[in-house]
Amino acid sequence: MIACFFRRCSVYFAPQKFEDTAGKWCMDLHEVESIAKQELLKHGLTSWSFAWAKTKRRQGVCKYRSRRIEIAEYYARHNPREKVLDTLMHEIAHALAGPKAGHGPAWKAIAAKLGAIPRAYDTCSETAVMPGDWQATCEACGRTFHKYRRPLQLDGYRCRCAARKVLTFQFAGDPSRRPPDPSPAERSAKWEALCVGCGTIHRRQRRPKAGLWRCRCPQRCELRWIFREAGDAR
């Protein structure tokens, strides 16, 4: 999904397709960087800069405080030229529209003028994204599900195919990076919120009270609580 958090706009992957497509019809990173710098100058954003991001799920981000446009390196290496350039112009449109515009009419008008698709998020199932460290494969249909963080429960999920096979997640990443097993309190937590600023995962056993929740990190990002319960894999 795409969301704006404290003066930044983030384009998030719809993590459905995982494959190595680098080199087939993708852009060279130097070309992307060159085009980005040219477009910033072309549109009068002379105080802005471009940088590569190491993010896994986020395609691009417009950081207003540091005046910087970032594109995920993995995303640029493994997706078609038109998709990468569309994301670039999406973020430049945010820089021109300002932090208060969000994905509203003003931003959409600028995005369309720049040639970007004026949409809030990428729903294409063909978007190649970085595989998650935690994976589960359906024995019936063969589909592999990926998670970037350790699920609170490794089993209890079911594939949505006709067979409805049970899924069990296993760590498939670098063994040296395997996180410790969660405590009993963490495993029993049913509500979870991720701070996009510092990466902290907040957990609660009871339903959080209505209102605005923020992380205590310096960025004070808004927290969006999600109910976590064993069920269908998404």
Describe the structure.
The chain is of the alpha+beta class. The chain has 5 helices and 15 strands. The protein has a 5-stranded mixed beta sheet. A 3-stranded antiparallel beta sheet has the order 7-6-10, with no helix packed on it. Strands 12-11-15 form a 3-stranded antiparallel beta sheet, with no helix packed on it. A hairpin with a 3-residue loop joins strand 1 and strand 2 (8-12). The longest helix is centred in the middle third of the chain and has 17 residues, at 81-97. It is globular. The chain starts with a strand and ends in a 7-residue tail after the last strand. Mean pLDDT is 82; it is low at 1-23.
* Unreliable residue runs: 1-23
* Rg over C-alpha atoms, rounded to the nearest angstrom: 19 Å
Distance between the termini: 14 Å
Q: Tell me the name of the CATH class of the largest domain.
A: Alpha Beta
Per the CATH scheme, the topology name of the largest domain is Zincin-like
Total helices: the number is 5
Count of strand segments: 15
DSSP helix fraction: 10-25%
- Strand share of the residues? 15-25%
Number of domains: 2
Strand order of the largest sheet: 1-2-4-5-3
What structural category do the secondary elements indicate? alpha+beta
Nearest-integer average pLDDT: 82
Any idea what the shape is?
globular
H-E string: EEHEEEHHHEEEEEHEEEEE
Described by strand count, sense and barrel closure, the largest sheet is: 5 strands, mixed
